[in-house]
Amino acid sequence: MLIVLTGIDGSGKSTAARALVDTAQADGENAMLLSNPAGRRSMSVLAERLGIRWPRRLADAVETTFRLTNVLLSHARASRVDGLVVMDRHLHCQLALRTAKGLPRGRLLPWLISSLPEPDAVVHLDVEPALAHQRIVARGTDSETLDDLVDLRDAYRSMPGYPGFVQLDADCTPEEVVARLKRIVHKRTVRAESPVAV
Fold first, then answer.
1. Rounded distance between C-alpha atoms, residue 43 and residue 47, angstroms
2. Separation of alpha carbons 44 and 195, rounded Å
3. Please, which of 43, 69, 100, 125 could form a disulfide with 155 given CB 3.0 to 4.6 Å?
4. Which stretches are annotated as coiled coil (predicted)?
């Protein structure tokens, strides 16, 4: 089973993904976490230290290269796993970032999304940008403006595939997010194991 997590920075994707896999493994299940970062956090920290803002197209080119490479490697690894695979971020995230920055979607990423194995669910962690911003400030490892988070939220919501995402309200504690995520995975598992009527 392949579950993909999306959401704006500060929505709790990485925390939820790790907790879900840890819980599954503790229950004796075969589960793997695969992360698909784009290097945004490192670039954000570096830009802040240098006092600069990366040109949009340069940032997108670097991020897309890293994200695309990681996603392709993750799918190759996932194809060899018999069990639960949770992907923290995917190409949807890069498309949302492009829209938020006012850049065109392009053809490659949408084509790859339609060509790669379809996840059993793309779960979108929906969180208010103000709360996400508080979380980012509290962790102190990167920097995002509230306006950028609002733009990214709106970009996700404008995506053609967004209505097909499973919405998960992430304006709550990490424990509650994981509990909700587990229920989503359980429903998908039951559905996949149900006999097909002939």
1. 6
2. 48
3. 100
4. none
Does residue 27 come out as left (phi exceeding 0), alpha (psi in the -120 to 50 range) or beta?
alpha
Local structure of residue 3 (DSSP, 8 states)? E
Could you give the C-alpha distances from 120 to 3, 5, 31, 78, in angstroms and in order?
A: 6, 11, 15, 13
- Structural domain range at position 29: 2-193
Q: What is the dihedral of CA 39, 43, 45, 47, to 10 degrees?
A: -170
Calculate the alpha carbon distances from 67 to 59, 63, 64 in Å. 12, 6, 5
Q: With contact defined as beta carbons under 8 Å apart, do 15 and 39 qualify?
A: no
CB within 8 A of 111, min separation 6: which ones? none
Domain membership flag for residue 198: no
Q: What CATH number has the domain bearing residue 92?
A: 3.40.50.300
pLDDT in tens, the chain (198 residues): 999 999 999 999 999 999 999 999 999 999 999 999 988 777 776 777 888 777 888 889 989 999 999 999 999 999 999 999 999 999 999 999 999 999 999 999 999 999 999 999 999 999 999 999 999 999 887 778 999 999 999 999 999 999 999 999 999 998 999 999 999 998 888 877 766 544
Q: How many domains does the chain have?
A: 1
